[in-house]
Amino acid sequence: MADIAQKENIMGTQKMSKLILFTGIPLMISLFINSLYNFVDSMFVSQVSEKALTALSLAAPVQLLVSALGLGNAVGLNAVISRALGRKDTGEVRKAADAAIFIALCSWVVITVLCLLFVRRYFAWQSGGDEVIAEYGVQYLTVCMLFSLGQMGQWVFDRFVIASGRSGLFLFTLSAASVTNLILDPIFIFGLFGVPRLETLGAAIATVIGQTVGMFAGIAINRKWNREIPFGFTLRPDRRSVADILKVGFPSTLVQVLTSFVGILMNSILITFSSTAVAVYGICIRINGISTVGVHGITNGLIPIVAYNYGAANKKRVSNAVRWSLLYGTLFYLLFFVVLELTPIWVLRIFEASDYMLEIGIPALRILAFAWIVAIPALVISAGLQGLSMGMGSMILTMSRQAVLPLVFAGIFSRFGNLAMLWIGFILAEFLGIPLAMWFWKKGWRRMEGGKLQ
After folding, report:
1. Cα-flanking dihedrals φ and ψ of residue 388, to 5°?
2. 454 residues of the chain, pLDDT tens digit each
3. Using CA atoms, how far apart are residues 344 and 452, in angstroms rounded to an integer?
4. Alpha-carbon gap, residue 201 to 41, rounded angstroms
5. Which residue, among 7, 50, 76, has the nearest Cα to 244 in the 3D structure?
6. How far, in whole angstroms, is CA 202 from its chain's centroid?
7. How far is CA 425 from the centre of its chain?
8. Coil, helix or strand at residue 396
9. Nearest of 49, 36, 61 to residue 141 by alpha carbon
10. Per residue, what are the HEC states of 37-92?
């Protein structure tokens, strides 16, 4: 109880400029490590061929769909287990932990069925009739989905340590997975040390091995250093715990599922220009994951700060938290922004960009880099809304600027046959997201003034 009191005292009293960094930097590190998965895969696969890179770009939205199941389970179990820990109810903690493991297993079964039914059909549709791209994609995605149990398990055991307040241990499990993937990628992709050259299939094998290592590392760490959360495996979990986890995690899953479908539709538009356009978009998504870790780390750390001070009815600290987050988020991104604007050719060369890829990729990267800096106010406010218990408003804001508006603009601008106009649509979507974000924030501020806590 003393530790909890100390944490709450920090949330309510520590100088906000320090508190934002204190909560945000560990999350930045974890997000950076996590984003290396797809970035490293794409970097090595680009040395195989542009078509192999395009296949990974087409696979990315489906991988997002797969991770949505793990994310929803993770978000739900984090809330349910944390609540049970707060009540010191060991029985409820055990029930929630076992339920989360059961849900992870069920998610893997669903992913396996979807893989067997739809992967080949998906690439036949998305590849634009290019059989080489389709085959590369089928090989990669089939392995990633069939052996996704490691990924589903890693989500669970990572969140066990986070829920119990041992976030530092989370970095060890995440690092174990990413480092394993980083080491094995070139070995399996290019056929080093006597291993046959497997190309995209090798990238998939390295990925699932890394995820499995991360899962077993999580099991070991929780068994040894996190005995506060007992867990086991059962095919008959507590129904109430399962329902509670699914209820809390469903909004996060929904947002990611919808984002996945937007990515699929965006690729179907881009393939009408060329397969290289799809590859460029995939590269930009990977670069976005790396370059915006600072922003997302700050915003993820902002949520509990706003929530605590909202509960304490301290409007001034809520306001200061949002302002400092906006400042830090912008500063952390500025270095990447300068690099992407001034030296996009160097960045694209990491992915073995051809002359044609450079021709369409340089303007794409510059335009999207600008869109990402415009997005920072909406990202900060979206996190603030979650802290104010306005999850629906946060979801509407996120889906509007990241999904609905970009897709609408892409559909309109693609009719002009100008690829650069399609990228500009992302900037317009982010600009339109700012007034929507401000409207939601003013609504939340009025609710604070009225003392309407939920």
Report:
1. -90, 10
2. 444 444 444 666 678 888 888 878 877 877 787 777 778 888 899 999 999 999 999 998 999 889 889 888 887 887 777 677 767 778 888 999 999 999 999 999 999 999 999 999 999 999 888 999 999 999 999 999 999 999 999 989 987 887 666 666 777 777 788 889 989 999 999 999 999 999 999 999 999 999 999 999 999 998 888 888 888 888 899 999 999 888 877 877 887 888 888 889 999 999 999 999 999 999 998 899 899 989 988 887 787 778 777 777 788 888 899 999 999 999 999 999 999 999 999 999 999 889 999 999 999 999 999 999 999 999 999 888 877 878 788 888 988 998 889 989 998 998 888 898 999 999 999 999 999 999 999 988 887 766 554 4
3. 48
4. 11
5. 76
6. 23
7. 22
8. helix
9. 61
10. HHHHHHHHHCCCCHHHHHHHHHHHHHHHHHHHHHHHHHHHHHHHHHHHHHCCCHHH
Q: Tell me the C-alpha distance between 303 and 317, whole Å.
A: 13
CB 104 within 8 A of CB 237: no
CB contact at 8 A, 361 and 283: yes
Cα–Cα distance, 249 to 241 (Å, whole number): 12
Under DSSP, is residue 425 helix (H, G, I), strand (E, B) or coil? helix
The residue behind tokens 């999580």 is: 218
DSSP string, 119-145: HHHHHHHHTTT-HHHHHHHHHHHHHHH
Q: Which structure tokens are listed for 400?
A: 């509007």
Query: How many angstroms separate the CA atoms of 83 and 89, rounded?
Result: 9
* Tokens linked to 287: 């670069």
pTM for this prediction: 0.81
Residue 21: Cβ within 10 Å count: 16
